[in-house]
Amino acid sequence: MFCSKPVQFRALNTLHYISPCSIFVLLPGVLGMRTSTYLAKFLPMDKGLRYAFLLSIATLSMMMLFIIWPNGVEWLFLRSLFQVWRVLYDYTFGLLPIPSGVWLLMLGFWLVYRTWKRKSRSLMGLVKVILWIFNAFFWLWGFLYFMPPACPEAQYHWTNEEMYQWLMEVQADLETNMIAKEPVVEEFEIRERLENFLEERNWPTTGRVRARAWHEGGLSRYLGVSGIYLPWCMEGHLSVTLPAEVLPFVRAHEMSHGYGIAQEGEADYHAYKALTTKMNSNSDQVCRWIGQYELWCTLRRILLQMDPEAFKKSDELCSQTLAERHQLVKANYAKYSGQLADFGAKSNAVYLQAMGMNDGLANYDRWVTWVWLEHLQE
Predict the structure, then answer these.
(1) Which end of the chain, N or C, is more open, meaning fewer C-beta atoms within 10 Å of its C-beta?
(2) CA distance 227 to 238
(3) How many CB atoms lie within 10 A of CB 282?
(4) Residue 314 confidence (pLDDT)
(5) How many whole angstroms separate alpha carbon 298 and alpha carbon 367?
(6) Whose CA is closest to 144, among 267, 268, 14?
């Protein structure tokens, strides 16, 4: 399902792929060196800018290679260099109690201050910073966007009745297996579940991926961001202001990105499967309910667009306990809505389209199709 060929992967095998793959980096690197040497005769370049430009040539060359040969991303990046980054980060900065996003912000402010302090070279300094940000994004994670989908392409056109019946099934499941308020699922439990699901499909799980909830006063929520994976610090971040019924799913989604799942819909699918797959642990019921609740919310949104009357009927049949629980979650999200959140959503849509997800924000809902096809097979 995830790889064209079954390949066993272990952390100790990572270096086996580095040597044969390094030639694809060295060749564009040599080209960039010659080009930057030529341009240095005409443009005022310091050593840092020259290296940034050289690396940019290598980055663009790798992007062109992956456009021509998408399957090469798996071997030249996902199963080799990316695994090295994971180990180096996860067992150093990833062990610190402070989210790395804090360090990234401090570094960003320092770079801006340092760049503009040098007035005579401020423009070239800004160009250098932008180039390093661009290169770091792709070499630490961004090349994964060029990889073929981790999940098979699938399309299904539901009838209104099918969508309504499925929603009612999930709704009945949530009402029957209602859990206590303010459920708590620890980060290590989600990591264990996600790794178990990925390993069954032969996806590399090297490292110790983090997705930390940080106390930012809801600032990211006001910007329309519930969670975000930052390639520059190699871990996910989510707001502690998220409802307890939603936070574990968002955490699993961001951790999926950390393991190399780039597409948003695929990250949602992995989060759902990680939470709902039975592992004979004490958290099985809580995790399954959270996964089903996210599915229920998505199905409600789809049914509302397809058949408002059927949606209204499902709402009327919803138990009071579940309805009150859902209203609390909606109230939490409404608190952070507004023009800034709308602008954040539009910016995210533009970013996703730039990264090859032409359906924009609709990409998040693609996971429902895969879950439905599995549901039909049960």
Answers:
(1) C
(2) 4
(3) 9
(4) 95
(5) 10
(6) 267
Whole-angstrom CA distances from 55 to 20, 34, 165, 220, 363 are 20, 12, 54, 32, 31
Instruction: Report pLDDT for 4.
Output: 33
Concatenated DSSP letters for 162-173?
HHHHHHHHHHHH
Residue 367 near residue 265, CB atoms below 8 Å: yes
Contact 255, 266 (CB under 8 A): no
Tokens 């859902």 locate to 326
Helix residue ranges, H only, 69-159? 72-73, 81-90, 100-117, 122-140
Identify the segments of the chain with pLDDT beneath 70: 1-45, 115-122
Identify the pLDDT of residue 39: 54
User: Strand 235-239's sheet: what is its strand order?
Assistant: 211-214, 235-239, 227-230
Shortest CA distance to 213 belongs to which of 249, 265, 264?
249
Look up residue 65 and give its two tokens: 């290679």
- The reported pTM is 0.87
Type of residue numbered 350? V
CA distance 354 to 262: 13
Strand-pair category, 211-214 with 227-230: unpaired
pLDDT of residue 31: 53
Spatial distance between the Cα atoms of 258 and 211, rounded to a whole number of angstroms: 8
Q: What is the pLDDT of residue 43?
A: 56
CA distance 204 to 206: 6
Q: What is the dihedral of CA 257, 259, 262, 265, to 10 degrees?
A: -70
Q: Which helix (H) or strand (E) holds 230?
A: strand 227-230
**Which pair of structure tokens corresponds to residue 266?**
């695929």
Those residues with Cβ within 8 angstroms of residue 219's Cβ, 6 or more apart along the chain or in another chain:
239
- Decide: 48 and 128 in contact? Cβ < 8 Å: yes
Question: Token digits for 273?
Answer: 């499967």
Q: What distance in Å separates the CA atoms of residue 52 and residue 39, rounded to the nearest whole number?
A: 13
Q: How many of the other CB atoms lie within 10 Å of CB of 257?
A: 27
> What one-character-per-residue DSSP string does 321-358 give?
HHHHHHHHHHHHHHHT-SHHHHHHHHHHHHHHHHTT-T
